[in-house]
C-alpha cells in the first residue's frame, strides 16, 4: 500500500467528516418530518381512526428505519454480517413473542365475553 | 464497510478502532435483549388497552402538548450525541466535545423534567399503577424508559469526567461509542412509546 501525501489524507478525513455530519442531519430532518406528520394527524383530527392508526404505524416504522440507517449506521449491504443477523433474529423473536402475546390475550378476552 | 453498529472510528484511532469491533458488538447484543424486554412490555400494554376497570383513561390523563415537546427534545439530543461522537472522531478537541455532551445532557434533563411533570399530573388525576390493568402496563413501560434515560445521563457524566482526567484516550472513546449506541436506541424505543402508548390511544 502506497503512503498518501499528508495533504490528501487530511482532505480525505475532512470529506469523511462532512459526509458523516450530513448523514446525521439527514436522519434528523427525516425523523423530524415524520414526527410532525405523526403528531399532526392526531392533533388536527383529520382522518378516521383506522386511517390514523395505519398512518401512525407507517410513520413509526419509517422513522425507526431512518434512525437505524442514519444514526446507527446499519446498512443492508456492507454491514458486518453478525450485526444484521442479530437484528433480524431480534425482529423474529419480537414478532413471535409480542405478536403471539397480543393474539392470545385478545382471543382469550373475546371468549370471556 | 461498517464493522460494528453505530459510528465506526478509523485506523488513526488504533487501538480503539480494533477493540471496538468486539466491545460495541457485545453492547449491541445487550441492546437487542433490551429491545425484547421493551417489546414485551409494549405487547402487555396493547393487550391491556381496554382494561380501564372504570378508572381514568388516556383522554383524561395524557397531554399531547408535553409528549410532543418530549419527542422533539429526545430527537434533538439524538442529533447532539451523534455530533459529540463525530467531534471525538474528527476534531479531538476536548472543549468541542464538552459542548456537545453538555447540550445532550441538558436536553436529556429537560426531557426527564417534562416526563416527571407528566407522571405527577397523572398521579394527581388518580392515574396510579394500582388503579387498572392499563395503568399498571403504562407504569411498567414508560418509567422504565425514563430510568434508561437517567442511567444514560449518569454514564454521560462519568464519560465527561473521564475526558477531563484522562483526555480522549482509547477507553473513553470506546465508552462514548457505546453510550451513543444506547442513546440512539433510547430514541428508537421512544418512537414506539409516543406512537403506541400516547398517539395510538389519543388518535
UniProtKB/TrEMBL annotation, chain B:
<dbReference type="InterPro" id="IPR035973">
    <property type="entry name" value="Cyt_c_oxidase_su3-like_sf"/>
</dbReference>
<feature type="transmembrane region" description="Helical">
    <location>
        <begin position="67"/>
        <end position="86"/>
    </location>
</feature>
<dbReference type="InterPro" id="IPR000298">
    <property type="entry name" value="Cyt_c_oxidase-like_su3"/>
</dbReference>
<keyword id="KW-1003">Cell membrane</keyword>
<feature type="transmembrane region" description="Helical">
    <location>
        <begin position="137"/>
        <end position="167"/>
    </location>
</feature>
<keyword id="KW-1133">Transmembrane helix</keyword>
<feature type="domain" description="Heme-copper oxidase subunit III family profile">
    <location>
        <begin position="23"/>
        <end position="202"/>
    </location>
</feature>
<feature type="transmembrane region" description="Helical">
    <location>
        <begin position="179"/>
        <end position="200"/>
    </location>
</feature>
<comment type="similarity">
    <text>Belongs to the cytochrome c oxidase subunit 3 family.</text>
</comment>
<protein>
    <submittedName>
        <fullName>Cytochrome c oxidase subunit 3</fullName>
    </submittedName>
</protein>
<feature type="transmembrane region" description="Helical">
    <location>
        <begin position="21"/>
        <end position="47"/>
    </location>
</feature>
<keyword id="KW-0472">Membrane</keyword>
<keyword id="KW-0812">Transmembrane</keyword>
<feature type="transmembrane region" description="Helical">
    <location>
        <begin position="98"/>
        <end position="117"/>
    </location>
</feature>
<dbReference type="InterPro" id="IPR013833">
    <property type="entry name" value="Cyt_c_oxidase_su3_a-hlx"/>
</dbReference>
<dbReference type="InterPro" id="IPR024791">
    <property type="entry name" value="Cyt_c/ubiquinol_Oxase_su3"/>
</dbReference>
<dbReference type="Pfam" id="PF00510">
    <property type="entry name" value="COX3"/>
</dbReference>
Amino acid at each position: 500500500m502506497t503512503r498518501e501525501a499528508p495533504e490528501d489524507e487530511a482532505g480525505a478525513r475532512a470529506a469523511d467528516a462532512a459526509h458523516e455530519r450530513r448523514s446525521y442531519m439527514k436522519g434528523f430532518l427525516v425523523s423530524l418530518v415524520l414526527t410532525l406528520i405523526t403528531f399532526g394527524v392526531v392533533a388536527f383530527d383529520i382522518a378516521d381512526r383506522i386511517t390514523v392508526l395505519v398512518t401512525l404505524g407507517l410513520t413509526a416504522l419509517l422513522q425507526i428505519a431512518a434512525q437505524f440507517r442514519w444514526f446507527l449506521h446499519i446498512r443492508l449491504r456492507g454491514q458486518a454480517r453478525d450485526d444484521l443477523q442479530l437484528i433480524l433474529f431480534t425482529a423474529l423473536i419480537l414478532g413471535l413473542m409480542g405478536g403471539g402475546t397480543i393474539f392470545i390475550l385478545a382471543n382469550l378476552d373475546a371468549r370471556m365475553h | 464497510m461498517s464493522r460494528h453498529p453505530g459510528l465506526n472510528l478509523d485506523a488513526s484511532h488504533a487501538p480503539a478502532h480494533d477493540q471496538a469491533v468486539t466491545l460495541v458488538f457485545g453492547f449491541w447484543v445487550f441492546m437487542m435483549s433490551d429491545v425484547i424486554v421493551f417489546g414485551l412490555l409494549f405487547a402487555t400494554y396493547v393487550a391491556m388497552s381496554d382494561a380501564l376497570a372504570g378508572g381514568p383513561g388516556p383522554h383524561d390523563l395524557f397531554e399531547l402538548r408535553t409528549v410532543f415537546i418530549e419527542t422533539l427534545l429526545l430527537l434533538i439530543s439524538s442529533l447532539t450525541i451523534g455530533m459529540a461522537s463525530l467531534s471525538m472522531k474528527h476534531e479531538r478537541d476536548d472543549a468541542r466535545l464538552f459542548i456537545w455532551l453538555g447540550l445532550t445532557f441538558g436536553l436529556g434533563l429537560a426531557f426527564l423534567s417534562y416526563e416527571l411533570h407528566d407522571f405527577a399530573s397523572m398521579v394527581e388525576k388518580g392515574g396510579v399503577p394500582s388503579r387498572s390493568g392499563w395503568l399498571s402496563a403504562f407504569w411498567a413501560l414508560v418509567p422504565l424508559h425514563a430510568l434508561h434515560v437517567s442511567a444514560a445521563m449518569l454514564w454521560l457524566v462519568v464519560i465527561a469526567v473521564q475526558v477531563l482526567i484522562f483526555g480522549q484516550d482509547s477507553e473513553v472513546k470506546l465508552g462514548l461509542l457505546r453510550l451513543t449506541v444506547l442513546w440512539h436506541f433510547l430514541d428508537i424505543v421512544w418512537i414506539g412509546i409516543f406512537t403506541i402508548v400516547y398517539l395510538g390511544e389519543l388518535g
